[in-house]
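INPUT
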Amino acid sequence: MRNRQIPRGLRDLLPEEVKVMRSMEKKAARLFSSYAYEEVMTPTFEFLEVIEAGRGSRREDLFLFMDREGGILSLRPEVTGSIARMASTHMHDADFPRRLFYTANVFRHVQPQLAQYREFRQTGVELLGAAGVWADAEVVNIAVKLLASMGLERFKISINQLPIFNSILDDSGLDAEDRSLVRKLVEDKDLVELYRLLEGLNIEDDLKDTIAALPVLHGGLDVIHRIPYVEKNRNASAAVEELIKIYDALKIYGVTSNIVVDMGVLRNLDYYTGLVFEGYSSDLGYGLLGGGRYDNLLGQFGLTCPATGFALHMDRLALVLKCRDEEPDHYLVGGSNYQAMIEKSEQLREQGYIVEMDLGKHSRDELEKRINGKNNWTLLYVE
Amino acid sequence: MQQEYLTIALSKGTLLKPTVELLKEAGLPVSGLSEDSRNMVFTYEDEGIKYLMCRPTDVPTYVEQGAADLGIVGKDVIVEQAKDVFEMVDLKYGYCRFVVAVPASMKDKHIRELNYRRVASKFPLIAEKFFREQGLQVDVIKLHGNVELAPLMGLADMIVDLVSTGRTLKENNLVELVKIMDSTTRLICNRVSYRTKHENIQPLIENMQEIVKGGDST
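OUTPUT
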């Protein structure tokens, strides 16, 4: 029965699930619009070069195919790269700062399991052409407000400044390969391997201690004081200063109760350059949203321009959302005189009710049984 | 209010005894904790701790999916399962190592001479990855047990297996040609739990690091 199978990692969404998805989209669009973000749509697939300009040459998780002229195409694994390409073509300096948002399905060749799908829906914002603390804070604030507006109760957003990590590593004199290894170990919190690797390195002890401490530095703003080595590095100190300012700006927005500083958040995409952040709910073992500053990405397409943004993994959030939207009242209209039934039904619909008309001339008893136990359903039997 | 538990997945089998001792030393409740009982979940309400008794190979799955916040399991299992979990503490006990072993008659061969050979293993992922990193191509044959039998019966030229003392190898006239990696027991953590239950988990991690540093917990 091959004709009833669907490819691994894909799924059908039934009405109940689509309701949740659409409700999230509506709330997200309302929130984003209130911050003057405008919706855009980009193509479902792009040239591979466009995708690689953004996230480097990591191809394992891409769905690739050829067009008839021999170009290599990729289903989009995310939308940020496409928006960067679009902005560099269609927008000009005078337009900036420009606030954009999107909702789109993206495709990644991951191992399918709970909360890991090969096609899933993202919604997100990009703030193009704005650098600095206030732009970063605006976007993080929107991320917090977004999760809160969906009715999610217990969640945290972890923030970090990538330049702290990068400038500390600059001092270590490690080659590119070791650097990316250290980065991966810190990101994965593989403390065992990290300590082993550091032991064998010929670098200052307090630098070693600082790198070793990064993955577990997690908490309020005070964790910054636990990396003393930072003072020895001008770039790292500047990045710390900026993190403090961003945190203060988030205080003004009133969202710091959901913010955690986590030096282990590095995001594994190559394009991030500044503040990075990730959102988690204690009800799901996987991250819900992620984003950060990517000041060099638009330059890949010929438009030098700072930018920041994030994307929410909607399919994952749907797994943990408990509250459902209120629906308008439903009527089930039955009877045997279709003209009268149609007239009555249309009347009710105009008043804003949802009306299902019975097409099978069922008796009043049968129809009563059908709505029995269903919330906010009323039977209207037209004699 | 619903109590928020810290859930820890434990490996049944040989690791359990030293694990229980470690938990006791770390000040966690262990009374009645044993795999002989029918019980698979042990709940300690006062301390807010839950243990799950799992097959070792299932521990990384429970932790990755967030069904458990923490897990105690061998590095060998973590590597072969290739799950996305945080590896927080090397608990040092349960030592063993992955090796490539060959029949004694091949003991003077260099690993490079093993290209295009067949290798039998319970750990196909580790075997495959090791040879690929050496730039070698081999056929990996997945077996579920008694891997030592494969070279004897001509099913494979060599094996990749886990050894602790090396006795089984010797009994089957096999010799260790290359060590792939060492393995000890690890404390692993779910990516999200580490952040959402940080105030409970971090002290536990530091506590265990101290215990491991302080003495031999085996």
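end of record. DSSP finds eight helices and eleven strands in chain B.
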